[in-house]
Amino acid sequence: MTMPRVMYWSQAPESVYAVLRECAQGISEVDTLATGDAEERRRLLHGADVLIVAAHRFTEEDLTGAPRLRLLHHQGVGYQDTTPVAVLAKRGIRMALTPEGTTTGVAEHTVMLMLAVCKRLAHVDAELRRGRWHINTYRSESREIAGMVVGYIGFGRIGQAVAHRLAAFGARAVFFDPGITADSVPVADGVARALSLHELLATADIVTLHLPYSAAAHHVIDAAAIARMKRGAIVINASRGGLIDEGALHDALVHGHLAGAGLDCFQQEPAPSDHPLFNLHNVVVTPHTAAASVDALRNKMHALFANIGRWQRDEPLHNEVRLPHA
Description:
There is one protein chain. Helix content is about 35%, strand content about 15%. The protein is an alpha/beta fold. The chain has 2 domains: about 5-100 and about 290-320, 3-Layer(aba) Sandwich (Rossmann fold), CATH 3.40.50.720; about 105-285, NAD(P)-binding Rossmann-like Domain (Rossmann fold), CATH 3.40.50.720. Helix 1 runs parallel beside helix 11 and helix 5 (about 105-120) packs across helix 7 (about 155-165).
């Protein structure tokens, strides 16, 4: 059986490509980007049977140059803002997701952002490297997670993994998730209580987002939502850009209604270097790297290429998205 040609749509270091090729052995040939320019993308895409999409957006226009494409496999689960689903359906191209490998890395990263914001870590680190010793500067605003109420907007695999980790810190959990009908969910030795979105915003000391981007979720944290939040609350987003109105967040941080924010994703990615949020000492930012560990990458790619093998053998795909009929 001829092995399919798989194109990796994101440009990455050779060390990342080496993991892909290791996991693809005996299953497929893998084409990767050297320069990432438009001509190289067109040439490789033209011969691709399968495309792996991660954060780099794949558009309807791109799809016109993919005559052989039969399967689009997303590297993660948040495909709504990177993939032209309706056009895939018209072309009869199948799509599958890769939930494996993400949970631990994103959960750990979320906890890291919370701790870093509470202790002003990024700012005091940068200041110390400049010779400024802020031993007392932030004593009156630095916080401890113990005793805090953490509110989860979205309480699936990752949200629950964060809650389990934070239970060891002595934090309490509440959540809003229309997909969960239970009044509570077990977390470590306790439970997370379900609340309405308005109740959660008014209750939580930290609001953390764990849901995919969609039109319905666009700016779920906007000026009105922020106004409902407790004064001194913290916002964390290691999910998707577009869930937060960044202008409203900036205003709330500057004027003191919110105490801080930890952000791994942005409305525009890559985020511009002059982004207004980057100038604030109470904001910690990372470049959409919550799931970017070699451990997660290996787990993801083993699962992803195993799925491509199933597709090649005409076996049922794991985590296939049932696309709407054209």
